[in-house]
Write a structure and sequence with these properties.
The complex is a heterotrimer. By secondary structure, chain A is an alpha/beta fold. Chain A has 12 helices and 19 strands. Chain A has 2 domains: 118 residues, Urease, subunit C, domain 1; 310 residues, Metal-dependent hydrolases (TIM Barrel). In chain A, strands 1, 2, 3, 4, 5, 16, 17, 18 and 19 form a 9-stranded mixed β-sheet that branches. In chain A, helix 6 crosses helix 8 and helix 9 runs parallel beside helix 10. The radius of gyration of chain A is 21 Å and the shape is globular. In chain B, the strands form 2 sheets. A 5-stranded parallel β-sheet of chain B has the order 3-2-4-5-6, with helices on both faces. In chain B, helix 1 crosses helix 2. By secondary structure, chain C is of the alpha/beta class. Chain C folds into 2 domains: 142 residues, Rossmann fold (3-Layer(aba) Sandwich); 163 residues, Aspartate/ornithine carbamoyltransferase (Rossmann fold, 3-Layer(aba) Sandwich). Chain C contains 13 helices and 9 strands. In chain C, the strands form 2 sheets. Chain C has a 5-stranded parallel β-sheet with strand order 7-6-5-8-9. In chain C, strands 2-1-3-4 form a 4-stranded parallel β-sheet, with helices on both faces. In chain C, helix 1 packs across helix 11, helix 5 crosses helix 6 and helix 5 packs across helix 11. The longest helix of chain C has 20 residues. The two termini of chain C are 26 Å apart. The chains are: A alpha/beta, B alpha/beta, C alpha/beta. Chains in contact: A-C, B-C. At the A-C interface, helix 7 of A face helix 4 of C.
Chain lengths: 460, 186, 342
């Protein structure tokens, strides 16, 4: 049957029976031909041609729009020992994602139309999610010269998000020019806010814990000063700015202030920054080494509040797989980063929903609607209504599972949540109407038609 | 558990008096005598013996002939036992070179403690003669070692526990033998 | 105790135990035969990823006095400098049968990694890691202070702590593993610690440490100090703008001749001057201060061997395998059996 689906038909029809739509009332969804064909209570009673549909009993499950990650590292091309587009997007599908933005810091850097088109092609060949390449802001992430942003925007990959993520675009003139230039194609600059001089050799959050551990500090001000500068620049030139992985309470205040002044800024928080603190560094276990670093509990609480009140717009995983030898070493030698695609939903449920800060409709906003908007993805983050693209996930919020990185689809074993019990499980993921995940396990990938159009262009 | 007391305070005192005289006799006087107690309970016994020797021979300054010899670091079972911090080793000011050193311990059993003591002693100097005095000799030797002066020979089974209790270390004098009763378990 | 990684988690009981054992080890150093057979057949590896001849030979002397076999593994010129990982190095040492690894590393926390992972099942002694800790240095400092403090009080040092002793530590606290280890250990032992440094050389978060912080050395001295410890300051810090010039540093935070004289003026006749070495004479300490009768610099070096002997002995002499809890329960006399094994 799997073979048939791969080649003959991506979907068939599926009748999702009795799922709580965005956590609300239970209704049925009929998925057929890549779209939500119908939504309503008891669709089979209404008899709108559901006879051939595979029925999925979804009582107790929540139906949500497929999640969109604004910030993923797929490592390919160049570091296929860490992750490939295939393994990374399998992890994404299992985590409830139907689209991911692949960051530009591959080898070679995604700073030309050729590389972003290669990543787009790899993503389509894999077929697990919509892979949207992010283009580098500067050539080789070197922070010296603008990459060919227009060529990437006009390429088959239709790049709209540009970022030197991993490295801050710290030159204020270069940042200003990038912000201005991407206006020509409704692009956005996603800034990795890190003042480089204040963070030379930095290993962890600068504070009480770093003082005791003797690890070089990464002060909050190094993030906040860049964000402050960038929101003022964005206002001055009237451009769209996205702030990657906001990690401090001070950054939240600056973004809140900027939004109140009408600055066109969006902000992202990672699941790990919503939960973990720098206390974990006391183990010297590099699985907790990440950039920006884990901060204090006061920061965690501020980030949660900001995500709940909309100051922070989206959850982005900053999924950063590393080969084990880059973590099985001294802290200072270790690579920065954590995996996140397969734990994001659970961590957000634990930190935001089970704390009463948000509901599932808010969850859909911060994990799907808002990130799709930032990336200008036309057919992602849409309402679960008849006629909309069938990017839908089913979540069992009552499930509990213990994180075991060795059982993950990502090649990275560097999950900071290893051994923790988390709530919530993705039961099914529908990507373009095709189930990439069923019963919580990988099904088959979506097969793009040979004559598939270029990546969809701007939606506003 | 069956407990019997094989020596009481008076028995201990009598035994030490006899040993003190034997030491003087064997040495033909107090010339060059050094008494080294092995921690913990050998040391208070050495102090008591020195006092008795001084009482018998007024030319002897008891404090000047007594010392403590720690053997912890010379034991052959260090890696089979929990870590034990060492006790101080204190030699009389005269040292031990060319002296007649009498090692003093409470119980002589396997002989391994005395083996360690002989090694420890040799690292500290070269005595002319080394002798051994113990309050209790309970047999079961595992090395070719015997005591020159014995307070009481006490035939025991190796399942028995022989404990010497001294006022200085245990606030009471006495030698109880606790026969360990192994209860049958189902 | 399985490892000696930091003084932050060292209990008062264990600290006193190490110091007391070191007193006995010190006595061995005064004998003709400066050797004990306690660690015969045990292998101690000195694994040094950072040059430190002083610390390395101190540990080497300590291990040899305890009759251990010593292997010196310097990272420079070895496979480590060719990119071999800490994990591979540790596994290699494990395969060679190392019972203890004395590790000096430029990266904070490297000894913790060795102890926490299954790369090697040996006792780990931290011989200085990055800007984190240097526990044996703090222990030898405390040992030196305790002898001084007990002598002033007319009591034996064995068993004593540092209750009420006023200790000032001056210099580059930010980058100093010695300062960190001393702050935690001296607090545990009951001393009152004052850190004196330019604000640029104090870590953010120092206000939460169990000590007083001052920017003024003269004011600290005037309040009364029983032990004055100077930390090494590296001249290259000047280039990173931690202070304007070495001369300015020396004037404000160095222990110069004027401050040496001030001790007399202030009536601090029993105050000792300490330095972990190597000293920058004329920068953080004047020659007159370093060579004065108050200076304990050489005593610190001497005591270092005793402390390291104590640490090696206490970590390595016990049972090779930790006994299971059940075997304790089965034989309640096991712990005291050495008193019975005559």
């Amino acid at each position: 049957m799997a073979e048939q689906q791969q080649h003959a038909s991506n979907s068939g029809a599926y009748l999702i029976r009795g799922a709580a739509i965005l956590g609300g009332a239970a209704e049925d969804l009929l998925i057929r031909d890549g779209i939500i064909a119908a939504r309503g209570p008891h669709l089979d009673a209404d008899g709108v041609g559901v006879g051939d549909a595979t029925v999925i009993e979804a009582a107790g499950l929540v139906a949500l729009p497929g999640m969109v990650d604004i910030h993923t590292h797929l490592r390919e091309p160049g570091r296929e020992d860490a992750e490939t587009v295939e393994t990374g997007t399998r992890a994404a599908a299992l985590g409830g994602y139907t689209a991911v933005h692949a960051m530009a810091n591959s080898t070679p850097v995604a700073d030309t139309a050729g590389v972003v088109e290669q990543v787009l092609t790899l993503g389509r060949a894999a077929g697990w999610v919509d892979v949207r390449p992010v283009g580098a802001v500067t050539v080789g992430l070197a922070g010296e010269q603008l990459a060919e942003l227009g060529a990437m925007a006009d390429s088959r990959a239709r790049v709209r998000v540009f970022s030197d993520d991993g490295i801050c675009v710290h030159d204020p003139v270069l940042m200003r020019r990038a912000l201005e230039y991407v206006k020509a194609f409704d692009g956005v600059v996603a800034q990795h806010a890190q003042e480089p001089r204040l963070t030379a050799g930095a290993q962890m959050n600068e504070g009480e814990v770093s003082a005791v551990l003797g690890l070089a500090g990464w002060p909050a001000v190094a993030e906040e000063s860049i964000i402050a500068r960038d929101v003022l620049l964005a206002q001055h030139v009237g451009s769209r700015l996205h702030v990657c992985h906001v990690s401090t309470a001070g950054s939240v205040e600056i973004i809140r202030w900027a939004k109140s002044r009408g600055v066109n800024v969006t902000a992202e928080v990672t699941p790990h920054h919503l939960w973990l603190t720098d206390e974990l560094a006391r183990s010297y276990d590099p699985v907790y080494k990440v950039n920006p670093p884990l901060r204090t509990d006061a920061d965690v609480q501020a980030l949660r509040a900001a995500l709940a009140d909309g100051t922070i717009d989206v959850v982005g995983t900053d999924h950063a797989p590393h080969p084990s030898e880059h973590k099985e070493c001294e802290w200072a030698q270790a690579a920065m980063g954590m995996t996140g695609l397969e734990t994001a939903l659970s961590v957000v449920q634990h930190t935001m929903i089970e704390t009463g800060l948000m509901g599932w409709a808010d969850f859909a906003r911060v994990t799907s609607t808002a990130p799709a908007g930032i990336g200008r993805l036309q057919d992602q983050g849409r309402p679960l209504e008849a006629g909309e693209p069938a990017n839908v996930i089913l979540v069992d919020p009552a499930a509990r599972w213990t994180v075991d990185p060795s059982k993950m689809a990502t090649m990275g074993r560097n999950s900071p949540f290893a051994g923790r019990e988390l709530p919530g499980r993705v039961v099914a993921t529908f990507f373009k109407g095709h189930p990439t995940v069923l019963d919580g396990t990988l099904n088959t990938p979506y097969r793009w038609p040979d004559d598939a159009a270029d990546a969809p262009a701007v939606r506003s | 558990m069956l407990t019997r007391v094989v020596l009481n305070q008076a028995d201990i005192d009598r035994a030490l008096t006899r040993i003190a005289h034997e030491i003087l006799e064997a040495n033909k006087g107090s010339q060059d005598l050094v008494l080294l107690g092995i921690p913990r309970r050998g040391y208070p016994l050495a102090v008591r013996l020195a006092a008795k020797i001084a009482a018998a021979d007024p030319t002897v300054d008891a404090a000047a002939i007594v010392g403590q010899l720690d053997v912890t670091m010379f034991r052959d079972d260090l890696s089979h036992q929990p870590t034990r911090p060492p006790y101080p080793t204190q030699l009389p000011r005269t040292g031990i070179d060319n002296k007649v050193v009498v090692l003093i311990d409470d119980v002589l059993y396997s002989g391994r403690t005395i083996r360690a003591a002989l090694d420890a002693l040799i690292d500290l100097g070269r005595p002319r003669i080394v002798r051994l005095a113990v309050l209790i000799d309970r047999g079961h030797r595992e090395l070719p070692i015997r005591a020159d002066h014995v307070g009481k020979n006490l035939p025991t089974s190796s399942s028995e526990k022989v404990r010497v209790r001294l006022e200085e270390t245990d606030s009471v004098d006495g030698v109880p033998v606790n026969e360990v009763v192994i209860e049958a378990t189902a | 105790m399985r490892h000696l990684l930091s003084t932050e988690d060292l209990s008062l009981q264990n600290a006193i135990r190490i110091l007391d054992t070191a007193e006995e080890m010190a006595a061995v150093g005064e004998r003709e035969v400066k050797k004990l057979p306690a660690l015969r057949g045990r292998t101690v590896v000195n694994l040094f990823f950072e040059d430190s001849t002083r610390t390395r030979i101190s540990f080497e002397a300590a291990a040899k006095r305890l009759s251990a076999d010593v292997i010196n593994f310097a990272a420079k010129g070895s496979s480590v400098s060719k990119g071999e990982s800490l994990k591979d190095t540790a596994q290699t040492l494990a395969a060679m049968g190392a019972d203890a690894v004395v590790i000096r590393h430029w990266a904070s926390g490297a000894p913790h990694r060795l102890a926490a992972t299954d790369w090697i099942d040996a006792a780990v002694i931290n011989a200085g890691d990055g800007t984190h800790e240097h526990p044996t240095q703090a222990l030898l400092d405390a040992f030196t202070m305790r002898r001084h403090w007990a002598k002033l009080a007319g009591i034996p040092s064995t068993g004593a702590d540092l209750q009420g002793m006023r200790v000032a530590i001056a210099g580059d606290v930010l980058h100093s593993r010695v300062a960190r280890s001393n702050v935690w250990l001296l607090r545990t032992l009951g001393a009152e610690v004052t850190l004196v440094a330019p604000p640029t050389l104090l870590p953010i978060g120092v206000e939460k440490w169990p000590c007083t912080v001052s920017f003024d050395l003269d004011e600290t001295l005037a309040k009364g100090v029983d032990a004055m410890m100077m930390l090494r300051v590296q001249g290259e810090r000047m280039n990173a703008s931690f202070f304007p010039t070495t001369r300015e540093y020396s004037r404000r935070w160095g222990f110069d001749d004027n401050r040496l004289r001030a001790l007399d003026t202030l009536g601090l006749k029993d105050t000792i001057i300490m330095h972990p070495g190597p000293m920058n004479r004329g920068l953080e300490i004047s020659s007159a201060a370093a060579d004065s009768p108050r200076s304990t610099v050489l005593a610190q070096v001497r005591n270092g061997v005793s402390i390291r002997m104590a640490a090696l002995y206490l970590l390595l002499s016990g049972e090779t395998r930790e006994p299971a809890a059940s075997s304790h329960a089965a034989n309640p006399n096991a712990t005291y059996s050495h008193q019975e094994s005559h």
